[in-house]
Design goal:
The complex is a heterodimer of chains A (409) and B (560). Chain A has 409 residues and is α/β, with parallel strands linked by helices. Chain A has 15 helices and twelve strands. Chain A folds into two domains: 180 residues, D-Maltodextrin-Binding Protein, domain 2 (3-Layer(aba) Sandwich), CATH 3.40.190.10; 150 residues, D-Maltodextrin-Binding Protein, domain 2 (3-Layer(aba) Sandwich). Chain B has one domain: MetI-like fold. Chain B has 22 helices and no strands. Classes of the chains: A alpha/beta (409), B mainly alpha (560).
């Protein structure tokens, strides 16, 4: 091979290489552009996807927030509850279609709730029999003892109903609504849940007692100037009055409490067997001051224009008990009963009962006319009663108060 | 008289059934009192409840209170009842004829309503009378404090007056006109005629009225609860009530032990009552001739005095009580120093719009009607066979049927409740349980109302009828026509009292509740006095119409 040939060949090869290289370069340039273009396209696509994902996420959050769901577990819970609700409704349709309630809460006050329930579940007819708490107890226990049909549900003052619970008359049922209630307002095994609150206060006649005369402390309350001017619920009965007074001990301390009770004895308060009568008699002007009465009676009388208001001496909290709702364990209509309990404890049910003048709904934060936090003056402390001691020793204390001379002339 | 043996067996079976019906509730209660009740923890037989009663220092004081209270109230009632009955039946004073309708009206008034009326009038600081008095005179002390022993006796005495009026008043129609004429002819003045003619003849009725009102006084609950408790005066019934509401489970054993002592007391009264009526026959003067009670013609002075007495009574009792109740029911709250500033019909509306079904109204009427029929027929039979034609064992039988009278209604209700529940004959939860309870309670009452006049029918008339046509004829031809008056009294009284009685109904009515009476009861219990007052007034208008219908029937039958 001549060197010339090799030169030519190499030149040609070079040129070819250059051409090829140029071509490749040109080609790759196009390719790169293509790639760049498609990458660009992809990015924008991705961006829109991510945008949509984000919107979706926001939407889900929004929906969840609106529905009050904070976690997947909760969503599952909700679905489960919805299925359970559906199951309850279907179960209830197969039951007798009637629901019997024995209650110590006025029928008039729960009627609107029952009406709303029947409108929601028209296939269930509710009968409500109103009795005093001891009669609810007697009816339920006697009918069970005689194997006769009894109530499906009771709505009863807690202090009496707790006996029924202890005797095993209740069916445990944790309503999905009960999670909105604090532990102090529900049984840990789901035997009962609070339905309406029953706070106890003191009451004075605003015409007979001027604002500045109003006793600000327990010591001022037992000032001898009030002698013969005080009406009080009968603390020798072992019921509301006794339990309130005994519970008060743990909030004001033993020594202060002893002084107060002795001072009270010297006032010779007139004892009345009805808690509501205390407020009524103060409203009538029969007594300037009343101790131990239902806050709801004071609020009602005030709304009607009576010259009364409630007051609590310093250090005395608003001691609050409640009426609870529970299912009797022998019920033949468990699904209908559960539906009713759910409804009564739901926000909707509690708003209905809380709009009745004057009933305090038990569910915290219920947006009703007579929600306790709306009615109360600021700075008042709410505490549960009766305390353990007040429940267990109510009888002994009642006798003790009797022996001290309360109620005798 | 050779009776077929089957008659005897039938009679015996009937008596046995009645005895069983009466004794079952009583037995349930007695068992409960020794610890064997169907409720609560099963314990051994115990006398603990009775020992506890005897050790209870408050038992003695409430026992003494009960006796004094009942004795004094029935004294007031019988005294006033006699005076008013005398004025109504035996004088021609103006207004005298009104008295009877007034008494009918006051009989139809539920006693809790009347007691509330008194507190509205005479409560020391918030009673209308006392407020007006202190404004006029400027006095600090009230004119009259109803929350005192005297106040309690006053209220109960007036409350029982219509009862004694109606127990005494029929006896006047049994006075022979010739006796009065003779007394006048022989120069007896009014007092002498009353003392020598009226009193001896009416005396058995007076005594029986006294004892009967004494028993009602012993067992009264409403008045001692509304007036006595705020006054710090406890009687046996209010102590029993305290026992039944203050413990969960309710202390039925302890309450029954108390009730047994009360029943013993009432039984003593019943015994003396029987003693009185057993000796009453000799006073009978009805010979089948005089049918209209003769009237004394009064001089002008006496007429004036008597009219004054009537007016005083009318103003103090019916007018002021009914007036203040109406006034109070129109207020949204009661405070006599701010009258007419909160006028409202709310109390009436609330009561009327209470979920009230026709079933309930019909039930009420049904129970009252059936009870009325059962007790009137039963009461007439019991009085006839036990007092008029006693048979062997009739004393015991009479005593047994009168047992429920000695048991306070709220305790009896528990006994009947358990009987209906555990006897399993299908009356539980029906109106029949109520009929049962009320019949038990009011049969002895009908006997009281009927037996006095029955014994005053001359026995020879009846004997004559018996000889001619046997016992049936003597019943239909002599006893029934002569007894028409007292029987209509009894029927009206029972109907009214069943309609107004509240405490028996609560436990016994289930499902289709008698809403009217239970509503009133619960309003009363929750202390909503003004609404209970409004409801009570509406109730009063119903019972009043029943009473007035009965009364017009009665006057018709008197005229015949």
């Amino acid at each position: 091979m001549s060197p010339r040939f090799s030169l030519v060949l190499s030149s040609v090869a070079l040129i070819a290489a250059i051409i090829v290289a140029g071509y490749v370069v040109v080609l790759s340039e196009g390719l790169r552009n293509d790639v760049r273009r498609s990458v660009n396209d992809l990015t924008s696509d991705l961006k829109s996807v991510s945008d949509r994902l984000q919107t979706l996420e926001q939407l889900i959050n929004l929906y969840a927030r609106a529905a009050g769901i904070e976690s997947p577990a909760q969503a599952e819970q909700l679905i489960k509850e919805r299925q359970e609700l559906q199951a309850k409704i279907e179960g209830a349709r197969r039951e007798s279609g009637t629901l019997r309630i024995y209650g110590s809460v006025d029928f008039r006050d729960v009627k609107s709730l029952i009406d709303a329930f029947q409108a929601r579940y028209p296939f269930i007819k509710v009968t409500y029999e109103e009795m005093r708490p001891p009669e609810v107890y007697t009816r339920v226990t006697s009918e069970l003892a005689a194997n006769k049909p009894t109530a499906d549900i009771v709505i009863i003052s807690h202090t009496t109903g707790v006996r029924l619970a202890a005797e095993g008359r209740y069916m445990p049922y944790v309503s999905p609504e009960s999670k909105s209630y604090p532990d102090s307002l529900k049984d840990k095994d789901g035997l009962w849940t609070a339905f309406v609150l029953l706070p106890i206060s003191l009451v004075y006649n605003t015409k007979l007692v001027k604002q500045e005369e109003l006793p600000r402390t327990l010591e001022e309350l037992v000032n001898p100037k009030w002698k013969g001017k005080v009406v009080m619920h009968d603390i020798t009965l072992g019921t509301v009055g006794t339990q309130w007074l005994v519970s008060l001990k743990s909030y004001v301390g033993e020594s202060r409490w002893n002084e107060f009770v002795n001072g009270l004895l010297n006032l010779k308060p007139v004892l009345d067997i009805a808690v509501s009568a205390v407020a009524e008699k103060v409203a009538a002007g029969e007594y300037p001051i009343g101790i131990i009465t239902n806050l709801h009676d004071v609020v009602r009388l005030r709304l009607q224009g009576a010259p009364v208001d409630y007051f609590l001496p310093e250090g005395v909290p608003l001691l609050t008990s409640f009426s609870h709702i529970a299912i009797i364990k022998t019920t033949q209509n468990p699904n209908s009963a559960k539906l009713f309990v759910d409804f009564a404890l739901s926000q909707e049910g509690q708003v209905i009962i809380g709009n009745v003048p004057v009933r305090f709904p038990a569910r915290p934060g219920t947006p009703a006319d007579f929600a306790l936090e709306k009615v109360l003056k600021p700075g008042i402390k709410i505490e549960p009663y009766p305390t353990q001691e007040a429940v267990e020793k109510a009888r002994q204390w009642a006798d003790e108060f009797k022996k001290m001379g309360f109620g005798s002339k | 008289m050779d009776r077929p043996i089957i008659h005897r067996i039938l009679k015996l079976a009937l008596f046995a059934l009645v005895v069983l019906l009466v004794l079952l509730p009583v037995v349930f209660l007695l068992l409960a009192s020794i610890g064997l009740g169907p409720l609560g923890p099963k314990t051994n037989i115990t006398l603990g409840n009775y020992l506890a009663v005897l050790e209870d220092p408050f038992f003695a004081s409430s026992l003494v209170n009960s006796i004094t209270f009942a004795a004094l109230s029935s004294l007031v009632a019988t005294g006033l009842g006699f005076v008013l009955a005398f004025i109504n039946r035996a004088t021609d004073a103006p207004l005298a004829s009104v008295l009877r309708s007034v008494m009918v009206a006051m009989l139809a008034m539920p006693s809790f309503l009347e007691s509330i009326g008194w507190t509205f009038l005479l409560s020391p600081r918030a009673g209308l009378v006392n407020v007006i008095y202190s404004r006029l005179v400027g006095a600090q002390e009230p004119l009259f404090n109803i929350y005192s022993f005297a106040g309690l006796v006053f209220a109960m005495g007036l409350n029982l007056t219509p009862v004694s009026f109606f127990l005494i008043s029929p006896a006047f129609s049994l006075i022979d006109k010739t006796l009065i004429e003779m007394s006048t002819v022989f120069g007896g003045g009014l007092w002498r005629t009353i003392y020598r003619v009226y009193l001896p003849i009416v005396l058995p009725s007076i005594v029986s009225a006294y004892i009967y009102t004494f028993i009602i006084g012993l067992e009264a609950f409403d008045t001692p609860a509304i007036i006595g408790i705020p006054a710090g005066i406890y009687v046996l019934t209010t102590s029993i009530y305290k026992k039944m509401v203050s413990d969960i489970p309710p202390d039925y054993g302890g309450a029954t032990a108390y009730a047994v002592f009360l029943a013993a007391l009432a039984s003593v009264a019943l015994w003396s009552y029987r003693f009185v009526v057993a000796h009453a026959e000799k006073y009978g003067s009805l010979t089948g001739r005089a049918e209209v009670s003769p009237t004394l013609r009064l001089g002008r002075k006496l007429k004036f005095t008597i009219t004054l007495i009537i007016m005083t009574y009318l103003v103090i009792h019916p007018i002021s009580v009914v007036g203040v109740l109406i006034l109070a029911s129109l207020h949204s709250f009661w405070n006599p120093s701010v009258l007419f500033q909160n006028i409202t019909l709310e109390n009436f509306l609330l009561f009327l719009t209470y979920p009230l079904s026709w079933v309930a109204a019909i039930n009420s009427a049904l129970v009252a009607l059936i009870t009325c029929i059962v007790t009137v027929i039963g009461g007439l039979m019991v009085s006839y066979f036990c007092y008029r034609r006693p048979f062997k064992g009739s004393h015991t039988f009479a005593l047994i049927t009168s047992l429920p009278l000695a048991v306070p209604p709220m305790v009896l209700a528990i006994g009947v409740y358990w009987t209906a529940l555990f006897s399993n004959v299908g009356i539980y939860g029906t109106v029949w349980a109520l009929v049962y309870a009320y019949s038990l309670r009011y049969l002895p009452l009908v006997v009281r109302l009927v037996v006095g006049p029955l014994l005053q029918i001359g026995r020879e008339i009846e004997d004559a009828a018996r000889i001619y046509g046997g016992i049936w004829r003597s019943l239909t031809r002599v006893i029934l026509p002569l007894m028409r008056g007292p029987l209509i009294y009894a029927a009206t009284y029972v109907t009214v009292i069943v309609l107004t009685n509240l405490s028996v109904a609560v436990l016994l009515v289930t499902k289709e509740s008698v809403v009217l009476s239970t509503t009133l009861y619960s309003l009363w219990n929750t202390g909503e006095r003004l609404e209970a007052t409004a409801g009570g007034l509406l109730y009063f208008s119903v019972t009043l119409s029943v009473a007035l219908i009965g009364n017009s029937l009665l006057t018709k039958s008197d005229r015949q």
